[in-house]
Design a protein that fits this description.
Elements lengths: L6 H36 L4 E5 L5 E4 L1 H4 L15 E5 L2 E10 L2 E8 L1 H40 L2 H29 L6 E4 L2 H12 L6 E6 L4 E4 L1 H20 L7 E10 L2 E8 L25 H11 L2 E5 L5 E7 L4
Parallel strand pairs: 7-9
Antiparallel strand pairs: 1-2, 1-5, 3-4, 4-5, 6-8, 9-10, 10-12, 11-12
Helix pairs in contact: 3-4, 5-6, 6-7
Length: about 325
C-alpha cells in the first residue's frame, strides 16, 4: 500500500499521469502544426479553399475571403478552367485529397487586360495609319478654305479645323502608344511649355467658362520637351472634360504648378471637376468614363513620365495628378 492505494491502483495512476503528460505534449504539438498550416495557407499567392466532404468550407485564406468567388458554386468536376466574376478573371484548379477538396483561384485579370490592350492597340494603330493621310488632306483643305471664305463663314471653318486637330491628336497618341517612342532629351526651360499648353487649349472645344493658371518658371530642366508637353496636354484635356461633364454649370478652373523638392522636379495638374469615378482604373488603356475620351491619354502620360524615370500619382486632398521627375545627381 502506498498513499492509501494498492500497488495496482498506484501503477494505474502513474500511467494515467504519464498519458495526461503525453496528451498535453501532443495537444501542444497539434496546435503548433495547426498554426503552421494556417500560416502556410495564408502565404499562398493564390486564393485557396479546402472543402469538407459535405461541401462546407474547412479552411480558407485571406485572398480567398477577399475574392468575389463563392466556392460552393464551383463545379468540382472542372479542372484548370477560367471563371469570370464581376469583371475579374480567375484560373481555377480543383483537386481531391481524400474526403476533402482543394480549390485554388489565381487572379488572371491583368493578363487578360494586357492581352485585350495589345489586340486593341494593334487595331487602333491600323485604323490610325489608314486615316492619317485623308485627315492630313482635309486639314490642308480647311486651312486653304479659311483664307478664302468671308467673315461669316470663318467661325464654321475654324471649328472644322479644331475638330481636325482633335482627330490628328488622337491619331498621334494612338501611334505613339502602339509603336512606342524614344526619348530625345535636351535642356529647356519649363516656361516654354506654357505656350504649347495655351495653343492646345485654343484648339480644344469646350463650352463652360474655365480659368487656366500656369505657373511654370523659367527654370532649366533636362527632358523630352515634346513628349512631356504631350503628357501635360493629356492631363489638361482630362481636367477640361471633367469640368465640362460636372453638374456645376458655372465652369471651373485648372492649374499647372511647379515645385522643386527632394531632388525632384514636381508638376501638379489640378482641376475643380468631379472626382474620379474609379481611381484604380485611371491608367488602364482604352478605359474611359468620359463622352469625349479615347482611353489612351492617361496611360500614355504615365508611359512618358516613367520613361523619364519619373512617377505620376494622384494627389492627396485635392483633385489632380503629381508628376515627379528625379534629377540625376552630378
Amino acid at each position: 500500500m502506498k498513499n492509501g492505494y494498492s500497488e495496482e491502483t498506484t501503477r494505474l495512476l502513474e500511467q494515467l499521469d504519464h498519458f495526461i503528460s503525453e496528451a498535453s505534449v501532443l495537444e501542444k504539438s497539434v496546435g503548433e502544426w495547426r498554426e503552421l498550416l494556417r500560416e502556410v495557407i495564408e502565404v499562398q499567392p493564390t486564393a485557396l479553399w479546402v472543402l469538407d466532404s459535405d461541401g462546407s468550407i474547412f479552411l480558407s485564406n485571406e485572398k480567398a475571403r477577399s475574392t468575389p468567388i463563392d466556392p460552393l458554386r464551383i463545379h468540382l468536376e472542372q479542372h484548370d478552367t477560367e471563371l469570370e466574376v464581376d469583371g475579374r478573371f480567375f484560373i481555377l484548379q480543383v483537386s481531391k485529397q481524400g474526403k476533402r477538396t482543394i480549390i485554388t483561384a489565381t487572379d488572371n485579370t491583368n493578363n487578360r487586360r494586357n492581352e485585350r490592350l495589345i489586340a486593341m492597340g494593334q487595331v487602333a494603330a491600323h485604323i490610325a495609319h489608314e486615316i492619317r493621310n485623308p485627315i492630313g488632306a482635309v486639314s490642308l483643305l480647311a486651312s486653304t478654305l479659311y483664307d478664302k471664305v468671308g467673315i461669316g463663314v470663318k467661325a464654321t471653318v475654324l471649328e472644322i479645323k479644331r475638330s481636325i486637330w482633335r482627330v490628328e491628336r488622337i491619331i498621334k497618341a494612338t501611334l505613339t502608344f502602339s509603336s512606342g517612342f524614344t526619348l530625345n532629351t535636351r535642356v529647356f526651360h519649363l516656361s516654354e511649355l506654357i505656350g504649347e499648353l495655351e495653343s492646345a487649349i485654343a484648339n480644344y472645344s469646350y463650352t463652360k467658362p474655365i480659368e487656366f493658371h500656369f505657373h511654370l518658371p523659367d527654370k532649366p530642366i533636362e527632358a523630352d520637351s515634346e513628349l512631356l508637353g504631350m503628357a501635360l496636354q493629356n492631363m489638361l484635356f482630362n481636367a477640361i472634360d471633367a469640368i465640362e461633364e460636372a453638374e456645376n454649370e458655372e465652369g471651373g478652373c485648372v492649374s499647372v504648378t511647379y515645385a522643386y523638392a527632394n531632388n525632384e522636379d514636381r508638376i501638379e495638374v489640378c482641376d475643380s471637376g468631379d472626382p474620379f469615378e474609379d481611381p484604380s482604373r485611371i491608367f488602364e488603356g482604352f478605359y474611359t468614363t468620359k463622352t469625349k475620351g479615347h482611353g489612351l491619354g492617361m496611360i500614355l502620360s504615365r508611359q512618358i513620365v516613367e520613361a523619364h524615370n519619373g512617377s505620376i500619382t494622384l494627389l492627396d486632398g485635392k483633385k489632380g495628378f503629381l508628376i515627379a521627375l528625379r534629377r540625376q545627381k552630378p
